[in-house]
Write a structure and sequence with these properties.
It is a single chain. Helices cover 52% and strands 3% of the residues. The relative contact order is 0.16. By secondary structure, the protein is mainly α. The protein has twelve helices and three strands, in the order E-H-H-H-E-H-H-H-H-E-H-H-H-H-H.
């Protein structure tokens, strides 16, 4: 899209505010505590602030562009790069690299592993930022209200990191990647695993899981378009899905009513299948991260062992090409 390689933005178009947490599936248990959501709004404000800094550093009028004049000249220093260079209304790729975009060469050969985290806070343009922040608002607020800032914050950050690792493994040279969509897909994945993990305490199970799978499928389908980093989406979703089993288990209904039962009839806090899912998910998460990070820092190319995986990121058609 711009200088120094193709820019792969991570765009999540997840909607469905009614499916984020306690709203979907008809949860039948009694909530003992409802958290006041402050982390998600803070993350949104932080991402907006970082984007303002991006545009300040970019300074299109000063640095110019070979592809035309700046868009929104009345914004002066904060005006956008030409649409031919960045159709998402944002800075140049050079600015994003300077600010901490994910760059395989810099991560592996220049020991800048911090880019695996910093890229989560950057956005390729105003459109990219608005879509991601609205998605985070709809998904994150409800999850934080129900599960608290510690668990949801952990899922958000670790999923974003996981998305960055998979993205770096497969995108390699000539690409940079930015965006919070890996973290957002992690929240979507955790919603699905939470539904599975706590299956027995939900009503309308079929409707809930079909709706959630539909939302996930639509978002992954968007990722096969050019300039969207679907590897970050897939990596974030996989990590969030496993983290949901680890962090979002609910006590079974009988345990929540234990004070009303005789001592001899006290049920266990969790069902046996919940413990099994917790162990399996934790092991898969740990093994997956170890293998992925070892491959990444040894300079391995994920495409070498999977010659069709590039189609997960972009499917060429008569309307567009994936290498432009």
């Amino acid at each position: 899209m711009a200088t120094n390689g193709e820019e792969k933005s991570r765009v999540a178009a997840a909607g469905g505010g009614g499916y984020g947490g306690y709203g979907y599936g008809g949860y039948e248990g009694r909530e003992k505590r409802k958290w006041w959501p402050w982390l998600v709004p803070t993350v949104i404000v932080a991402c907006i602030a970082v984007f303002i800094v991006e545009m300040y550093v970019n300074n299109c009028p000063k640095h110019g562009s070979a592809l035309g004049g700046c868009v929104g000249g009345f914004l002066r220093r904060f005006s956008f790069q030409p649409l031919r260079e960045n159709p998402l209304l944002g800075p140049s790729s050079a600015t994003l690299q300077k600010m901490g975009a994910l760059d395989w060469n810099k991560v592996v050969h220049q020991h800048q592993g911090w880019r695996l985290i910093s890229c989560i806070w950057l956005h390729a343009g105003l459109i990219h930022l608005v879509v991601n922040m609205l998605s985070l608002l709809f998904i994150g607020i409800r999850l934080e209200q129900q599960f608290g800032f510690i668990r949801i914050g952990a899922i958000y950050l670790i999923s974003g990191f996981g998305g960055s690792v998979l993205s770096a493994l497969f995108l390699r040279n000539n690409y940079i990647s930015v965006g919070a969509s890996g973290a957002l897909f992690g929240l979507l994945g955790s919603m699905l695993s939470e539904l599975i993990m706590n299956w027995t305490i939900y009503s309308n199970k079929a409707a809930a899981i079909i709706t959630l799978l539909f939302i996930i499928a639509i978002n992954l389908a968007i990722g096969i378009l050019p300039h969207a980093d679907n590897f970050a989406h897939i990596g974030g979703f996989a990590v969030g899905f496993l983290l949901g089993f680890v962090l979002l288990a609910r006590p079974q209904f009988g345990w929540m009513e234990r004070h009303e039962l005789p001592q001899t009839n006290q049920p266990p806090k969790y069902k046996a299948y919940q413990y099994v899912l917790w162990v399996v998910a934790f092991v898969l998460l740990l093994v997956g991260f170890v293998i992925s990070l070892v491959m990444l820092f040894k300079g391995k190319n994920g495409n070498d062992g999977c010659h069709w995986c590039h189609y997960l990121n972009c499917v060429p058609t008569s309307k567009w090409k994936c290498n432009t």
